[in-house]
Amino acid sequence: MRIYLDNAATAPLDLEVFEAMKPFMLEDYGNPSSTHAHGRKVRAAIESARKKVAELLNCTPGEIIFTSGGTEADNAIIRSAVDTYQLKHIISTPIEHHAVTHTLDFLQKQGIVQVHHLRLLTNGDIDLTHLEELLKTYPKALVSLMHANNEIGNLLDMETVGALCEKYQAYFHSDTVQTMGHYRHDMKQLKVHGMAAAAHKFHGPKGVGFMYINKDKKIHSFMQGGAQERNLRGGTENVYGIIGMAKALEICYQHLEEHKAYIESLKAYMIEKLITTLPGITFHGHSGNLQKSLYTVLNVSLPESEENDMLLFNLDLHGISASGGSACSSGASTGSHVLGALYPGSKRGAVRFSFSKFNKIEEIDVVVEKLVEIYKVTA
Ligand SMILES: Cc1ncc(COP(=O)(O)O)c(C=O)c1O
């Protein structure tokens, strides 16, 4: 039996989600834009999925726009906000997901915007004082900061950043791909204008996601096509994906505290076990700190060793799926841009374990045992 500890890359589909999707794969195949009965039935299902997502997020259905996933949502929000509000400055960090960093690089190369990188603290958190300084210098900028870093798990103080953005009239975009379904997002409380989500990170299907667009900060479409999604995202909707995503989010919200406590206990157990069995082990970013990091992610930092280069490969051989990337100082295309930015020149090993409600404590025991074997640690 293989062990899957790569849930931040993608999480297994919930059986209940699959059951909810099935009728829309086989029987209810109408195009939701068709006005006949086949179409109307599917349209009603999509709108009820939108209503469900909006209810869970405490926003209006019109603020939820379905997309093909997190990448599209990030692209759409950033490009459209820049275009709609003629924004010239973007404040962000080099440790965002590539869906954001590459979009910003592209816009800067085109001469459309100037990107300003925030100073990062050594633990990977953003420097809030620097954020305010930049906002003072470039008011009405676009601020793009992820809610939780997908590699090191650091959590953003959304309230403080939202308040600062409001003070300086900035457009606040947050990539919430890693936190959607794992934390409650109350859109009446958060002062965020655009948010991105992907269903497969919370036990929904792949290839579907959504963006939240605040109704007072409307943007126009970043692609041309049909009038779907209130003219904001042309293209026939991924019907069963959308149905599955709403179901997946509903399940997450129903059991959020229970699953959080369980997953957190797995992470705490692994931290404890690793510290007591592998000398010199530390954790990248805040991931070893339960209060300050995403409870689904643990990014392990292993002492310099010749085993480091082959670590993921060896784990894979031992039946363990995890992900990694080592701090890359050479500028080579391999390695993690996040660890490269935070730990330049580091030769320590890096492996990201990410958990879900489907993992078992016995699996953690096996993984730690295998790590001990790989690193030939003797008691
Ligand atoms: C933080 C973050 N943003 C965006 C994405 C992209 O999501 P998708 O692959 O669904 O487009 C991911 C997926 O790894 C992610 O972790």
Poorly predicted parts: 329-333
Principal-axes shape call = globular
Overall mean pLDDT score?
95
* Structural class label: alpha/beta
Number of helices: 12
Cα-atom Rg, whole angstroms? 21 Å
Cofactors, ions and other ligands in the entry: pyridoxal-5'-phosphate
| Beta strand count | 13
Question: What's the SSE pattern?
Answer: EHHEHEHEHEHEEEHHHEEHEEHEH
Question: How would you summarize what this structure contains?
Answer:
This protein has 379 residues and is α/β, with parallel strands linked by helices.
What does this structure look like?
By secondary structure, this protein is of the alpha/beta class. The protein contains 12 helices and 13 strands. A 7-stranded mixed beta sheet has the order 2-8-7-6-5-3-4, sandwiched between helices. A 4-stranded antiparallel beta sheet has the order 9-10-13-12, with helices on one face. α2 packs parallel to α8, α3 packs parallel to α4 and α9 packs parallel to α12. The protein is globular and about 70 Å long. About 1% of the residues have low confidence. Pyridoxal-5'-phosphate binds next to α3.
Helices, strands, pairings?
Elements lengths: L2 E2 L10 H12 L10 H21 L6 E4 L2 H15 L4 E4 L5 H12 L4 E4 L10 H10 L4 E3 L13 H10 L3 E5 L18 E5 L10 E5 L14 H4 L7 H16 L1 H22 L4 E2 L13 E6 L8 H7 L2 E2 L1 E2 L12 H6 L6 E6 L6 H14 L5
Parallel strand pairs: 1-11, 3-4, 3-5, 5-6, 6-7
Antiparallel strand pairs: 2-8, 7-8, 9-10, 10-13, 12-13
Helix pairs in contact: 1-8, 2-8, 3-4, 9-12
Bound molecules: pyridoxal-5'-phosphate.
